[in-house]
Amino acid sequence: MTVHHDARQDLPVWQIFLIFLRLGLTSFGGPVAHISYFREEFVVRRKWLSDATYGDLVALCQFVPGPASSQVGMGIGMSLGGFPGAFAAWIGFTMPSAIVLVALGLGLAGGNLAATGPMIWGLKLVAVGVVAHALWGMARSLCPDIPRAVVAIISAALMIAFSGAGMQAIVIVGGLVAGTLFLQADLVKLDGKLAAGISPKVAVFALAIFGVLLIGLPLLVQITSSSWLAVFDGFYRSGALVFGGGHVVLPLLQEAVVAPGWVDTDMFLAGYGATQAVPGPIFTFAAYLGAVMQTDTGGIAGAMIALIAIFLPAFLLVIGLLPFWDRIRHMPKMRAGLAGINAAVVGLLASVLYDPIWTGSIHDVKDVVIAIIAFTILQWRLMPVWALVLAGGTGGIVMGYFGVAGTVV
Description:
Layout: H1 13-26, H2 31-45, H3 51-63, H4 68-110, H5 117-142, H6 146-161, H7 165-182, H8 200-224, H9 227-241, H10 250-258, H11 265-275, H12 285-292, H13 299-328, H14 332-361, H15 365-379, H16 385-401
């Protein structure tokens, strides 16, 4: 088959699904690693996309809220097979980790949490090291100078003092404004053209649906008092308002499920730790949370609702913004604003490291030492994240057997 760069290929949906299923089964390491796997598969190996087109797609998905690597996968699927291709890409990449996490959630929810306490303790301590390592890497990359470091510090302080989804949105908008006013734009020459095969009318319609759901769902929840609608709204807002994806979704998900009492803190942190041990997007953590909710909306049905709701904004934004990205990505002020948003994201991650990760996991010197060891292992690349998480859970079980594990509070 002759393949032309920068044009939709209209590949069979089943072929797109199988490719992304394999990636979903093997893509360990988080969003940055996923993006590298995608490039190797579609740019280097198969040559179905040019480097320029792929780079533009990645840039867009880093700018908009949502799970960056999943959005890149959706964009690739759409370029290769239209809307069915985008859906096939999402299903293939998301399904493996979602199934594992739902099974884990059902097992924990149906069992005795105290009996799994040592394992949860180990997973929570590893989570401290994982988030600290992610924060260190992002800070070095996204805050290389004093102005961006200041934006990050102010963002972290605001989130710690005034936590909540509303404050996260304020911090992100503040980063955009600060970047536009005070930061230097990246003037690197951009080339290549995105080709998604989406008409402007369809794009505008998708953006309209995104906005209507974001504004209308909370109103409907108040009017109807539906628990199912409340769950859908909580996860939809988490997917719609988080910038940076990955670990940064934690405060929004915590606000959505822990604050109203749907999931307790121990189950939340245990699931987050387990999410690090599976391949695929971190946003599949939502499937686990949906499964363990202590309401009538839990179980498999809750997992499906949570998973669809948290990824729906990503679909709508990819569809709505791809046709217009070429028009705005060359604007210097927009690129400076993006630098400010990235710095604010570092601050958000720092606030997450403090609360709930640190405050919910570290209780004595032994906990501090284990968290530092986990961070050091990741920093020196002594083992991959998934292996470290498995070691943390197993180590917790072993230490619990000998009576030296910490407590889950």
